[in-house]
Amino acid sequence: MSDQCGFSNDGTESTGPHKSNYGDDHMKKKREDVAHGGMVSKLESPAIQGNCGIRQVQVVSAREVYNEIVSQVKDKWYLDWLKQHKEMFLTPGVEEGKFIAESFKVPHFQQIVGEQQRLLGQYVADPFVVACASVCNGTVVTEEAVKENAAKIPNVCQYFGVNFTNVQGFLEQKGWKF
Question: Which of 172, 154, 159 has its CA nearest to residue 29?
Fold first, then answer.
């Protein structure tokens, strides 16, 4: 059975959002044999089907991440790579919009979009990343850490029961070493 974005976990666990098993301490732990870097991951199953298309993917993100990066990065090699992998950046739908609206009902989470970003009309991907993970039952990969009363990705994830980890944790869970 698949959830909204077609992710399937073969019935081994709930397809609803749930809290990370790794918590804050895991976000601080580093190991030398695993590389670091910065996404939304579907850790349980690499298959994406349904409205998201049929392909083998282990890392996806929100279209707003693509837009934010393209608006800020000027390195040709980076922009070329992004364009070659544009399909991994999913277009938000109604469910993501509902999630973001719900998250903004928590007054201090509105600060995830900074005043300068609003005034300049800049792309802000953070709320879309969390929404994407929530709707697709994924895991947010971020180097941000939970900070008391902050409008940070891990705080929003924790509040709404969305899995999150850092790059180190993601690579360890996948068994990837570089």
Answer: 172
* Closest of 163, 165, 144 to residue 153, by C-alpha: 144
For the domain spanning 23-174, the CATH number is: 3.40.50
Model's pTM, two decimal places?
Answer: 0.69
Read off the tokens for 76. 């040709």
Q: What kind and span of H or E run contains 69?
A: helix 63-72
Query: Residue 22: how many CB atoms within 10 A of its CB?
Result: 17
Phi-psi region of 43 (alpha: psi -120 to 50; beta: other; left: phi over 0): alpha
Report helix, strand and coil shares of the chain as percent, to nearest 5.
45, 10, 45
Domain residue extents for the chain: 23-174
pLDDT digits (tens, 9 = 90+) for 56-100: 557 899 999 999 999 999 999 999 999 999 999 999 999 999 999
What angle separates helix 126-135 from helix 94-103, to the nearest 10 degrees? 120
- How far apart are alpha carbons 3 and 87 in whole angstroms? 19
Across 113-126, b (16+ Cβ under 10 Å) vs e yields beeeeeeeeebebb
